[in-house]
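no rush on this but wanted to send it before i forget. what follows is a protein written twice so to speak, once as letters and once as structure tokens for the fold. mainly i need to know what kind of three dimensional shape the backbone takes. thanks a lot i owe you, the record is right below.
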Amino acid sequence: MRSTQLTLCAGAVLAAVLIPASPALAAATENEETHGSVTVTPSTIAAGGEVDLRISVCGGRTAIGTSEAFAEPAKFHPAADGGLFAEARIRSDASGRDYGIHVKCEDGPGTASGNVTVVHHRVHPTAPVRAGGGGTALAAESDGPGTPHTLIGLGLAGVAAVAIAGRSVRRRRSGAAPTD
């Protein structure tokens, strides 16, 4: 009889422990299925740059991602290879530090979180950019014909025109006069 009482007491204790644990286990399993992570590429970026975001937690087709680092919320859409994809621009005035990213599924349960590291690089140009079609960039840098060269060229062309006109006048005069 004593073993029967001991068995019943052990069964009651076991039932008391397992019954409240079942909802807790179900909630933990549900939480694992509805919470995921955000994959950020590149994970370190300069202020003003753009990152790619991917999640696979949402069973739906859209989600919204927010962060203090983003210029505006990121809108997730289905990716070709599965999951959801978004692009986000980092604010140009974002200070260099780690920022949290929070994503909420819009058409189903689920959230995701991740981090992006913003580095603050200020790039100051040291020289003008060499741009142009082919060799025009180099031609723009060289000292080509300016106003003085143009005036000298016009002056030489005028002298040549006067010389040609004077020569043709002399030939006419010399051809018109009889030679004895």
About this structure: Residues 21-32 have pLDDT under 50 and may be disordered. Strands lie at 35-37, 39-41, 44-46, 50-55, 63-66, 74-78, 84-89, 97-105, 111-119. Residues 38 and 114 are 5 Å apart (CA to CA). Helices lie at 2-34, 136-141, 147-176.
